[in-house]
Automatic annotation (TrEMBL):
Residues involved in Zn(2+) binding: C48, C81, C84
Cofactor(s) this protein cannot do without: Zn(2+)
GO CC aspect terms: cytosol
Source organism of this protein record: Roseivivax halodurans JCM 10272
Function: This enzyme scavenges exogenous and endogenous cytidine and 2'-deoxycytidine for UMP synthesis.
Coiled-coil zones: none
EC number(s) stated in the UniProt entry for this protein: 3.5.4.5
Start and end residues of each CMP/dCMP-type deaminase domain: 1-123
InterPro entries for this protein: APOBEC/CMP_deaminase_Zn-bd, CMP_dCMP_dom, Cyt/Deoxycyt_deaminase, Cyt_deam_tetra, Cytidine_deaminase-like
Residues the entry annotates as binding substrate: N37, V38, E39, N40, V41, A42, Y43
Protein name, per record: Cytidine deaminase
SUPFAM superfamilies found in the cross-reference section: Cytidine deaminase-like (SSF53927)
Length: 128
């Protein structure tokens, strides 16, 4: 996943921030799927790398991720934004590993439960 995330990061469309991010995830079937951030001049309309990888996974017919690796050129590993944490939690179990990395090789791994404690989940929708 590390190399897939680093490769796809180079494809990121980040002309405004120049902050390229790559993400690669492993699906429940063991396939590696990747995505990169895609900016828009109207900043809120951009797409995060994690969301892109998840969309590619779903488009490929899968809905479970077992691990995800996110890389950016930053001084410290960059965690997924709040929205991406919720997107990851939608498709991953609480023990799935989220690895955050820098191009220099610094890595930090956390479980989904550690990354998003108290996540809103399917159980909250029961009875709705």
């Amino acid at each position: 996943m590390r190399e897939a995330a680093r490769r796809v990061r180079e494809m990121a469309y980040a002309p405004y921030s120049n902050f390229k991010v790559g993400a690669a995830l492993r699906t429940g079937a063991g396939r590696v799927v990747s995505g990169c951030n895609v900016e828009n001049v109207a900043y809120p309309e951009g797409t995060c790398a994690e969301a892109g990888a998840i969309a590619a996974m779903v488009a490929g017919g899968e809905t479970e991720l077992t691990a995800i690796y996110v890389v950016a050129d930053a001084p410290a590993p960059v965690p997924p934004c709040g929205g991406c944490r919720q997107k990851i939690a939608e498709f991953a179990g609480p023990d799935a590993v989220v690895t955050m990395a820098t191009l220099a090789g610094d890595e930090r791994a956390m479980s989904v439960a550690e990354l998003l404690p108290g996540a809103f989940g399917k159980g909250h929708m029961e009875g709705a």
